[in-house]
Amino acid sequence: SHDPLIDELIDLMKIRWPDSQVVSSHVGSLGGLMALKRSESHLGGTHLLDEETGEYNKSYVRRYFPEGGVKLISCVFRSQGLMIAPGNPLGITGIADMARVNYVNRQKGSGTRILLDYLLKQKSLEPAQIKGYEREEITHTAVAAAVASGTADTGMGILAAAKIYSLGFIPLIQEQYDLLVAEKTLEHPEFARMLEVMKSTEFAQRLQKLGGYQINNPGEVIL
What we know:
It is a single chain. Helix 4 links the parallel strand 3 (about 105) and strand 4 (about 135). By secondary structure, the chain is an alpha/beta fold. Strands 1, 2, 3, 4, 5, 6 and 7 form a seven-stranded mixed beta sheet that branches. Helix content is about 35%, strand content about 20%. It starts with a helix and ends in an 8-residue tail after the last strand. It is built from eight helices and seven strands; from the N terminus they run ααβαββαβαβαβααβ. The protein is globular.
């Protein structure tokens, strides 16, 4: 799952340990789970909402990894909402306005897309009513760029992405962003470095500067 905090972690790791090597790609939360299941990655960021319980991540881990082999590691809470043009010229106030504006979506399998569908159901809105629902971007910053360029009126994303492009932001939910890690990765020296950085003051300061984050017992095994 895309989040600028991954880039911050990698940067801080490179500063502390110049030989550090981390490669990441943006495939969405579900894509990350499947990459782990196929042993194609060591870990992935995830923020998958269970519509029935309102809980994040745990039910998906149990469903996709019934035999275990992975650990869910706590990371942060982050603010998700609607990114809008500065000054909010269209008077957007929330999800109910999605039927009258031009939207830009995230890709299928992303936690943000799953969250949007959940919020649309709460407002009795169908995807077919949302102009731009089929238009997909793979990162929060790509959605923010579309709104900043005027090719979309709004899109869901995190506050940090909205700030990068000096956009307005309507907060909708405080969501849980965790790391799902293969058990064999827990002993990997690079992961030990990542955990050390996650718990550092420098990382907390960078998140505060990005905006919209709350440290949530980073490194704690929650499942």
